[in-house]
Amino acid sequence: MAVKKTKAISWRSIVPACCNLVEEEEEEPPCMPKKQVVTKQSSFHRLSLLDLSNPSSTTLSEDLSISLAGSNLHVFTLGELKVITQSFSSNNFIGEGGFGPVHKGFIDDKLRPGLKAQPVAVKLLDLDGLQGHREWLTEVIFLGQLRHPHLVKLIGYCCEEEHRLLVYEYMPRGSLENQLFRRYSVSLPWSARMKIALGAAKGLAFLHEAEQPVIYRDFKASNILLDSDYTPKLSDFGLAKDGPEGDDTHVSTRVMGTQGYAAPEYIMTGHLTAMSDVYSFGVVLLELLTGRRSVDKSRCQREQNLVEWARPMLNEPRKLGRIMDPRLEGQYSETGARKAAALAYLCLSHRPKQRPTMSTVVKTLEPLKDFDDISIGTFVYTVPSETNLGIKEDKKDGEVKKESSKKENSHHRQSHSHNHKIHNGQRHQHRSPKSPTINPENVRSNGLNSPLHPSKMESID
C-alpha cells in the first residue's frame, strides 16, 4: 500500500496551473513566481522541477523541449501514440500502477528521423489517480537527463492539453514483482536473483554518486523492470528527489513511498537521505532471498512484516535455511546466500549510519554472481539401476535372478519386530518418513496461526 495522500480536488480543475503543482518541501509558497527560468542545460547544473514556472501547458512543452535539448527525448503527439498503441487497445494492455495504465506499442522507423523501429511501453497518466502532473514532470526531468544501463530508457513524452504520457523502452519480462511472486510459474533461479540484485544496486549507486546526487525514494520490486536477459532497470522516478547540497545532511519532505519498503527514520522524521534508499534495497534483497513480499497480510501475524520476521535470522547460518525461498529447492550457493544475508542485515539496520553505501553494496555483490557451490541440503534424485532394484543378471545363461524377495522378507521381519516394541506400556507405531502426518492439536498447542483463519490475524496499518 502506498503511503501517499490523495488530492482533495480533481486534477482536471487545476490543469491550467499545472506547472505550479510543486506541492512538497519548497521554502517559497507555490503561488510565488520563481526568480529564474533556466532554458538551457549547464554541465554543472541539472534541470530541476523548480526551474520551470510557466503555467501554460503549451509553454511547458516548449520549455521542456528547449531545456532538455541534447537529451534525445522525442516529443510525441497524442495522435501518434494512438497509432503506436492501436488507440490504446485492450489487447496491448500491460498493467496499471499508481500513475496510470501502461500499453505496449510499436514505433515504426518512419515515425521519427533517427528513431529506430522498436517495441515501446506507453504510460498514460490517470487524471483521477494517486499521482499527477508533478510526478509526470519529475520523471521527464530525471530520466530525460540521466542515462545508465540500469535505468530504464525514456524515449519521449506527450504533453498535449490535459494529456500526459511517457514512452519507454519495452521490457519483455515485466517487473521483478511479477517474476518473483506470481503463482504457477517457474521460480527465478539463484543466478538470476543475484544478477538482478547487483544490477539494481549499480543503478542506485549511479544515482547516489552523480554530480548532483539523486534519492530514488521508491525502490521496490515493482519498480525494477527486467529485459529478456534478466538485466534489471530502475523505473518510475515520480517520487525521486535531488539529494542534500552543501552542509545539509538530509532533505525534509513529506513521507511518500510504499509500505514495507520505506526506512523507519524517514517515516518518523521526514528526513530523506541516500541511506533511505539503502534500507529499501535491503528489503528487496530480502525478498529475493526469501521469495516473500515485504508485507503479506495473508500470513500469520508474526510473519506479516518480512523485515521484522526475517532480519533476526539473517546473521545466523543455522537459521538461514528456515527463511530461504523453498521454491529454490536448495539450488543456491550456501556461501553466496550467507554473504547476501549478511549484507541485507546491514542494509536493514535501524541506524542509518551503520548501513553501507550503495558502492559498498555493489562491491559486496559483485563476486556473489560467480558462486556455484551446491547447498549441502540439496535433494538429489538418482535414477535407480537394476542392481539397486534388487535385480541381478546372470551373464552365463542370461537368466535374471531376483533378490528382492529376500530383502522384502528381511525388511518385514525387522519392521514387525520394531512395531511390537513396548515402552512404558505404550506401543510405538512405525511410520514411513515418506508419508508424514500432522496432528492439528499439536499445531494449535505450538501457537501457530493458520493463514486460512483470518480471524487470528491482526491488520497492519
Question: Which labels suit this protein?
Answer:
single chain, 461 residues, alpha+beta, Phosphorylase Kinase, domain 1, Transferase(Phosphotransferase), domain 1, 2 domains, 6-stranded mixed β-sheet, two-stranded antiparallel ribbon, 13% strand, disordered C terminus, Prot_kinase_dom, cell membrane, Ser/Thr_kinase_AS, Plant_Ser_Thr_Prot_Kinase, membrane
Structural description of this entry:
With 461 residues, the protein is an alpha+beta fold. 29% of the residues lie in helices and 13% in strands. The chain folds into two domains: 11-169, Phosphorylase Kinase, domain 1 (2-Layer Sandwich), CATH 3.30.200.20; 176-370, Orthogonal Bundle (Transferase(Phosphotransferase), domain 1), CATH 1.10.510. It has a six-stranded mixed beta sheet. A two-stranded antiparallel sheet has the order 7-10. Helix 5 (190-208) packs antiparallel against helix 11 and helix 7 (274-290) runs antiparallel to helix 10 (334-347). Residues 392-461 are annotated as: Disordered.
Summarize the structure.
The chain has helices at residues 57-67, 78-84, 133-145, 176-181, 190-208, 264-269, 274-290, 306-310, 317-323, 334-347, 358-365, 404-419, 440-445; strands spanning 74-75, 93-96, 101-107, 118-124, 154-160, 163-169, 214-215, 224-226, 232-234, 241-242, 251-252, 271-272, 391-393, 400-402, 422-423, 426-427.
